[in-house]
Amino acid sequence: MVEFALPKNSKISKGKTHKDKSGGKKLKEFQIYRWNPEGDQNPQLDTYEVDMEHCGPMVLDALIKIKGEIDPSLTFRRSCREGICGSCAMNIDGLNTLACTKGIDEVKGAVKIYPLPHMKVVKDLVPDLSTFYAQYESIKPWIETDTPPPAKERLQSPEDRAKLDGLYECILCACCSTSCPSYWWNEERYLGPAILLQAYRWIIDSRDEHTGERLDDLEDPFKLYRCHTIMNCAKVCPKGLNPAKAIAEIKKLMAERMA
User: Fold this and answer.
1) By Cβ atoms counted within 10 A, which residue in 35, 119, 180, 257 is the most buried?
2) Confidence band (pLDDT; 50, 70, 90) for 76?
3) What is the DSSP string of the chain?
């Protein structure tokens, strides 16, 4: 009989429970994924009680309070606290989102917090985004031209500028890519929704003169065509963008130039 074993560190065990010691009456429970690469223990789910009478309304407020007042060893990324930088992307209540824009009152019962799914974990809630950023670099996210630069800026009509709406707002939080099963299974080869949305942003920029080369770079069985339009990416995007639509537009451009 064939036996299958789960990878090392894949099983999550019950961790420590940190009871509220302040005597607060409005308590909220947070269950947080913990893993330290310096040890050989499996990940664990630690439980923290937080007095909501002395905590901000967002999940990130609670994480900062836990780290500052209860457990300084808790590790997570955060920066702007305004849904702009994308640093605090994580899985909260089963959905990829930003901790700084996720209201605690949106979650019934205990707030369960995990790192972005299907990525290597650096520590606790911090995922390893090395591959993600390397893929972003691979699509050359800047204007490429052959003509000499003008004396001032490269002009663009209001109509052409409007084509970038719904694309340039991407903050590269990776919520969409890490919610995509195709990216889970083919992370090394499929670029994923976030990077393909960014690729389309430069493909349709009227100031860019390397559209053909950009499409050539995406003409690959895995880079582009692993998308099956299940729309997880659009569902979780904290900026309300639709990467699946951008991917479909790239496929359309590919088909048009082959006609």
Assistant:
1) 180
2) very high
3) -----PPTT-S-EEEEEE---S--SSEEEEEEEE--TTS-PPPEEEEEEEEGGGS-SBHHHHHHHIIIII-TT-------SSSSS-TTEEEETTEEEETTT-BGGGS-SSEEEEPSTTS-EEETTEE--HHHHHHHHHT--S---SSPPPSSPPP--HHHHHTTTTTTT-----TTGGG-HHHHH-TTT--HHHHHHHHHHHHT-TT-S-HHHHHHHH-STTTTTT-----HHHHH-TT---HHHHHHHHHHHHHHHH-
